[in-house]
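ok so dumb question maybe but i'm new to this and my supervisor (M.) told me to 'just get the structure for Autophagy-related protein 16 domain-containing protein' and walked off. so i did the thing. is this what she meant?? sequence i used:
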Amino acid sequence: MQEKDKKIEAADKSLLENAKLITSLRAEIELYQRSNTELKALNQVLKDEHQALQLAFTHLEAKLRKVQDENREIIDRLKQYKSKDAEKMNEENENFVRKKNAKMQKELEDAAKDMRGLSPDSFSLNNVGPVLLCASVPTKPSLKFDAHESEISAVRWSPVDHVVATGGADRRVRLWDVSKGNMASH
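this is what came out, is it supposed to look like this??
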């Protein structure tokens, strides 16, 4: 009997340990099932976000294509306008050159008509005034003087008086009276 009791006790002990193990394993299974459910929910959220992002990307891609097409059309129109402007400018330039050439041609024809009335004998030395006979390019300077400390970079005649203004590298402007025959600075 003792042996039976020992076997029963061992069987009870084994049953108790197995019951504890079953309870522990059921708790672990429940934990894994909850974790699996949470992962499935998270996976579904990620799939939904991915799908939303894919739709947004598709929409933005279509919008980009539309903007690129509009940009291409605008550039083509701008090229057409520029081409028309260039053609118009070329046409205006050609008209201007044509008118200028026609005017010059008319002036040349008028000048040629004026010359037809003159005979070669009319160009004798008796008909030419003394100014033309005396005019010549000077071969030597009539007056020489030092105007500035270094080289002269500008010379300007006064339209009113016989005054010359000179500017040099010494950064000074000097006025000279040429009517007196000497170059006295003012």
